[in-house]
Design goal:
Order of helices and strands: HHHHHHHHH
InterPro entries: Homeodomain-like_sf, HTH-type_TetR-like_transc_reg, HTH_TetR, MftR_C
Pfam family, one: TetR_N
Protein name: TetR family transcriptional regulator
Largest sheet: none
Radius of gyration: 19 Å
Organism: Actinoallomurus vinaceus
CATH architecture of the largest domain: Orthogonal Bundle
CATH class of the largest domain: Mainly Alpha
Shape: globular
Keywords: DNA-binding, Transcription, Transcription regulation
Number of domains: 2
Number of helices: 9
Amino acid sequence: MGADTLGLRELKKRRTRQEISNVATRMFIERGFDEVTIAEVAAAAGVAKMTVTNHFPRKEDLILDLHEEIVAAPARTVAERAAGESALAALRRGYFADLDRHDAAIGFSGPEFVRMITGSPALRARLREIHEQRENALAETLAAETGAGPDDIMPRAAAAQLTAVHRVLFQEVLRRTLAGEDHETIAAALGDAARRTFDVLEPALGGYAVR
């Protein structure tokens, strides 16, 4: 099987996944997350129920389809940091790049979407789990990057503080979205908030995990 064939299959798979997610999002917004079944999503998307569950083993991830990116992004940013750059500096830089793009992975979305997320206990619980997974992924990367031993608590402590910034700012984007602010207004407010929040960590972590 040639590379072109594999590439086309992967492209088709990604398109199917995105279409399922789009259909599910529309249905959940219209009727409520808890009121729509996976079978109904499959029927509306024109695929088998098993196709939906193969792409999205958990119903919550039909909506939170960026969960893998949310979990992986801070760890990847730290692993790819520049020479002389600390973990904190890399994450600060990465956050402001995402903010400039109004990236969905840091909370930017429409008010209907945010109301759906915040109105569902299941989705709120899944979001908390994603934040925890992100913290764990970052802790593993920090341990590897600093050569920390299994009994060294510092990578976990640093990851907890660093990802707490992202979690608080994520929630602030949601709060401001529900308050009716547009993306530009939110980004301007978050820029100031992010600078002040990252600055709080500078005395403790500014020299930690410098490449």
